[in-house]
Design brief:
The complex is a heterodimer of chains A (246) and B (637). Chain A contains 9 helices and 7 strands, in the order E-E-H-E-E-E-E-E-H-H-H-H-H-H-H-H. Chain A is α+β, with helices and mostly antiparallel strands and 246 residues long. In chain A, helix 5 packs across helix 9 and helix 7 packs across helix 9. By secondary structure, chain B is α+β, with helices and mostly antiparallel strands. In chain B, 37% of the residues lie in helices and 14% in strands. Chain B contains 17 helices and 19 strands. In chain B, the strands form 5 sheets. In chain B, strands 5-2-1-9-17 form a 5-stranded parallel β-sheet. Chain B has a 5-stranded antiparallel β-sheet with strand order 11-15-14-12-13. In chain B, strands 16-10-18-19 form a 4-stranded antiparallel β-sheet. In chain B, a hairpin with a 5-residue loop joins strand 7 and strand 8. The chains are: A alpha+beta (246), B alpha+beta (637). Chains A and B meet through helix 1, helix 2 and helix 3 of A and helix 3, helix 5, helix 6, helix 11 and helix 12 of B.
Chain lengths: 246, 637
Amino acid sequence: MNLILHVWRQAGPKAPGKLEQYEAKNVSPDQSFLEMLDDVNDRLIRDGKDPISFDHDCREGICGMCSQVINGVPHGGQERTTVCQLHMRSFKDGDNIYIEPWRALAFPIIRDLIVDREAMEKIIRAGGYTSCHTGGVADGNAVLIPKPDADYAMDAAECIGCGACIAACPNGSAMLFTSAKVAQLATLPQGKAEAAERVCNMTEAMQANGFGNCSNHYECQAACPKGINVKFIAKLNREYQKALFK
Amino acid sequence: MILDGKCPKGPIQTSWDRHRFDMKLVNPANKRKYKILVVGTGLAGGAAAASLGELGYNVEAFCYQDSARRAHSIAAQGGINAAKNYPNDGDSIYRLFYDTIKGGDFRAREADVWRLAQVSNDIIDQCVAQGVPFARDYAGYLDNRSFGGAQVSRTFFARGQTGQQLLLGAYSALSRQVQAGSVKLFARTEMLDVVVVDGEAKGITVRDLVTGEIRTHVGDAVVLATGGYVNVFYLSTNAMGCSVTANWRAHKKGAFFANPCYTQIHPTCIPQSGEHQSKLTLMSESLRNDGRCWAPKKQGDNRPANEIPEEDRDYYLERKYPSFGNLAPRDIASRAAKEQCDDKRGVGPGGRGVYLDFADSIKRLSEDTIRERYGNLFEMYEKITDENAYKVPMRIYPAPHYSMGGLWVDYNCESNLPGLFVLGEANFSVHGANRLGASALMQGLADGYYVIPYTIANYLAKIKPGTVKADHPECKKSIEDVNGLTKKMLGINGKKTVSEFHRELGKIMWNNVGMARSEESLKEAIKQIPVLREEFWKNVKVTGTGAQLNQELENAGRVADFLEFGELLAKDALHRKESCGGHFRTEYQMPDGEAMRDDENFCYAAAWEFKGVNAEPELHKEPLTFDNVHLAVRSYK
């Protein structure tokens, strides 16, 4: 099939950007979205033009590097799917496809479709860990963890840190991302000791780094390629309130 | 030169404990004076940087991704081995040690493997303490599953995302140190050279991938944890950015490259669907716990899988290896799949595929149980193939997945260049000629959490900190060299793109140096690679400049290195006139088609010294001795 792409091109953080039009020809339905872009790029290079810069790495939906808004939806709108796992069979011959970078105050554009997600790192650094030192820890079975708790923690821990939740949120809020880590660690006995301090520090970091507040749109859950549930936001709020009264 | 692995003498059971006592220590107050550069933030690098930071060293960590959390360890699915023996099924440190040595076809160092088995239990405890949500049973205890090459259940897992969870554990520990100021993290930064001063590694030259700036970081020791090189085959299960570049540039500065021909072709990957494909996707080995591999008995049987009756199916792994069945090790399962397809009994497009069938397990356990165990894998399979594996069997085919070879290191994980340490997949140490499933995660974390924090002190205690400064002539020369290379690539302005060259190299490698190798095919590869390399330097087209984010330029550098490295891989494979593990030479096989080792002539690690791009590399040998296991024919029948 043949497609018409409208791609956001921007040479640098301060340069003006605009949508440019490209043709994608002879696209196979078995191709992934990024492989389709690879072909477009190879043609651009042969014509002596600058290829489209975009973040990608594992191409199997787990590293969280790929980050494109496709037709207005982060990762393209297919349920529980990253851009790299999106396949061309979900498009039709002649389709116009709009491709843009993550849009959020906290994510400055570096080039074309690549954004700077350092602000998310700062949230994790503020407390997304248990403060244990390598060595000198208890046997893995010393503290029992009920299966439902382990499963609940795993549901939250599946977050790949791509930032689609933030790009989808009208407020550019990082609540789903932050709450997934808070919920995972607050549920496990190993993370409970620091739960109050963690939720306060991470929430503060979120506010300090350009992310908006949550106003319960749930766009984040809809865009999340791992299906992280908004119930973790409720869990964060609960943990936060508990911490305030401590 | 005969190389010495510097393994502790005496009984192996106490070797690591005695060695730890014998090594020198660095006083806590002095640690901050030493700067350690850690390249790569996967399981090995992330764990190392975090642990060294905790100890008080001044650490700088580097990764090419935008976050330390994205290293390709994240994609490991199935699990991590440990000798906990929680299921009471006969496991022990000795058994894990034995299985790993045997799984590697007796081509790894005993002492290194013993240490790995010994610290495996600590790793699980450490990860639990970090909040890794391993699978638990209803009583709250840690759960285990089985993996290939073992008859005990020793694999710990977190659904089908064990690598992700372990990496996020290491990443969280690393983030804590970044916050504490003991580790400085440089993301979107690629290492392009090692700075060697008076024979010792004292720095690295990197490119800032955002601004294009080339600069040198000096330190007292350099730790490479930069992963494997199977992207030399172009199509592999590795991430797009995985390359041999860091290792190869270190090799060109004098570090020996060991056993490059030991590459792992993973048996269960989604078959290639067309020429457009940029990578192959793995389906975890854990699926072989409940999936049965089969191919039609008749050649060219085109019926849909569900219409082929039981008596027309060949469950070839169960037939050939009754005691291990579908859990035969990877090299063996891969070759068996290839045999079926070579015999024209393959399925799917081009006949390059076999079935992995869950129908029996679904009948026995219910679809829900299978969904709970492997749901994410079935989902991933459906996204890529548009097929529902609960209803029709998966189609699988082997694909390049892991490299057992890597930079040569001694027992301390130190290369032949003093001060240059190599961890995880980037070194050659513990997997011999074939890695068992769930052992890569174990090795990465063992090296990072429990080996390097001890062994690096032994080196640092012998040197004065901060002797080399950034204005050292070797630093300036290194920057000039890297700049020169960049300029050269940008100046060619030829007609072919970088990925065209990479695809062509991949074809040469896969057809001639892939799952089955022969003298003829290897000589063919050794003839073709330099021709392609020469063309690359005349006809590659890289647009843009060096002073900007330029992904084509990044890729060009990586492919240029693969074009040199591929030749060494083929030469190593040609020189090793035996079959062992992942290295299968068609001339050396048993009457039943199994690999035929030659212990008399090849029981050594082959470490190659770089002599120039078009010059013959020099072979150095490290003899392997086996005092604790009996050198035997590896049988899984």
